[in-house]
């Protein structure tokens, strides 16, 4: 529990990080630093995206797997690190 | 006994003596009693008695009646109770006699006696001949009935029978049909019928089969799924999560740091600053001023020029225009009435919504910044006029039906209506005192910003009410006067003036004058005066226009910003001006950081930079300071002195043929000076939204749009011949974020409102920054010029200036020469002044 907290704090302390969400494999958010509505939105939408991305990668090469996903938008950048059971979403404001 | 109250006619009361009574056998209480009061007397006896005793007879009064009596017997009634006045009375008529003897049954309805119902007894039948009729009608047997017996022949009986079928149609008369037919006699319409209804659902079974080509799990979630608290706890504690995080964190940190180091998606090309051109490229063609509306009024603005225009600060689409007579024109119609200030509104371009009546032609006016209902104006005769339009503000909104004027000539029928719909007129509230006022027309008036006030001594102090009470006027008789709209503290001063002016009071206006400024009327005097003595020579400068710096209070002594905001809210209530008093200078804290210097443009084309704080001279009197510097840049009258709305220290001045941009603090020269143009510049104003753009109006009626970031030697765009006359005033206005207007007035009495196109009002990226840099650049280059020799300076300046026309070059050269001389003088003078600040030469006088 404390380790989890500590890890999140490490990530949070990076420059420009706006929020972190940990989501389980079903798309239910477990831990978050954002408000409830944003969390739910991010979890639901990004879960679908991750499924799609993963299936894309594996379709092309079944030996392959998705390790990281970065979405760059005008206002910020969303980074998703997926795993078997969970995935981690970090939203960052780029440096400029 | 029946009492007859009235005396019936057939009764005659009679007195009978005892002798008569014995004779006729009607002695009282013997023959006639109460129970038996009637006595029948024979007529003959009475006649006999009358004959025998003649007059003595008791019957003598009724003698004639008795003789006439038809019957033989008369009735005498013993009246024991003296009902009719006498003991007896004689009944005169036989009918009455019968009536009394046999009194008819009273007519009052009685309770009908219950009759005993008896069965009628059978009476013997009386034949009336009906039995004969019956006899005739009845049918009787006349003879005995005959009896016959018949039977079939014996051999026919007991024969074998044979049955066979027979169709009904075989025999003709085999059957008798009684078909039913619709009998019209019995057509009964059934009105109501009980009917049973059952709803039967129509059910249909069908099936369909689709091809599920792409198998895909789709789900819809109505509510976000949640985990329970304890589940979350469990998960957080689980090993799996820890492993996951340990695995994932390095990647994430790596990515995050990448971001920090460099932004790979950064578009260098775009950010280089060519973005300004890029955005303007498409809109370059449309950098125009589009005519939005034109306002004029036939009645008031004919043959008049517009001397000043102002947009209403709060009401959308309302502008006010001051008209004045043209100097050159000989008025063929001796229109002695002074022209009013007209208020126009976008909704009605041909008729003004409100008129402000003026004592004379107004050359300059301004809306009060804190209360847009107060307007101050300066007139041709040197008087300051105040209006309060709070009662009529609704007309300006343009939605009042009453403000819709019916043109007088086009509607002869509705004469009454047109009378009612006349433009409302507001009379001025207060005028300054005529004697002791300006001797020359007031050419410029500006309200002091509501952030600070000025005392009588000329010191700026803080403004407690945060409302604008003071303004400055200037007139060509060489001074700037400070005025206050609150009544002065020295009441004795005003009382004597009031007495004086009471005699001189003109006939009171008949219509309602707002009382707001009653305390000032006719007795108004300025707070203090600032004169402009010339720096080197005697005499004074002749100011035409001026501009002072808007001071925004950065720190209010002892008040936090919250309190300041509260004060703002409370001061929204417009104070009653007559109740306020000029505060004592001791109670208010003086503000040290107010910039008390202002720029003044004079009649001869000089720009004077002076301080309005009064100083003490040798004798202890307060005098105005000598101006800090003065430069003759323009040839003749300075038409505009205006500060940039973006930079506090950049001032645009226009004079006869050129314009100049000055930076406050740079003493010797304007940082930018334009070339001479062919047409004299008559009006100028900064754009309200773009720091680099300003508009200049010319005498030939064209408007030049200057964009200092595009071109510095010529206007970015010229709208030629916008009007036939010459342009007298330009004022921009931002009505909404999408609508920027520019109002242009000419000397033909017409106001044209242009809509500024988007490219002209949208500032480019970092425009103000670029402008500031540009100004600094110019300033530096000018400093370089200053350091160098005068003659090579001239050459440098020429080379540094961009391409010019030949004609303007010569005049610029000449100008430069004159300026250089003055400039050198100024330098020396400046040094001397700065050293000896406070000491004034004796020649100057206010």
UniProtKB/TrEMBL annotation, chain A:
Pfam families, sorted: Robl_LC7 (PF03259)
Biological process annotations from GO: microtubule-based movement
A molecular-function term among this protein's GO annotations: dynein intermediate chain binding
Coiled-coil intervals, chain numbering: none
Domain Roadblock/LAMTOR2: 4-92
Keywords carried by this UniProt record: Cytoplasm, Cytoskeleton, Dynein, Microtubule, Motor protein, Transport
Primary residence: cytoplasm
Superkingdom field: Eukaryota
An annotated GO cellular component: cytoplasmic dynein complex
Family: Belongs to the GAMAD family.
PANTHER family the UniProt entry points to: DYNEIN LIGHT CHAIN ROADBLOCK (PTHR10779)
Cited function: Acts as one of several non-catalytic accessory components of the cytoplasmic dynein 1 complex that are thought to be involved in linking dynein to cargos and to adapter proteins that regulate dynein function. Cytoplasmic dynein 1 acts as a motor for the intracellular retrograde motility of vesicles and organelles along microtubules.
Listed name of the protein: Dynein light chain roadblock
Organism of provenance: Sphaeramia orbicularis
Name of the encoding gene: dynlrb1
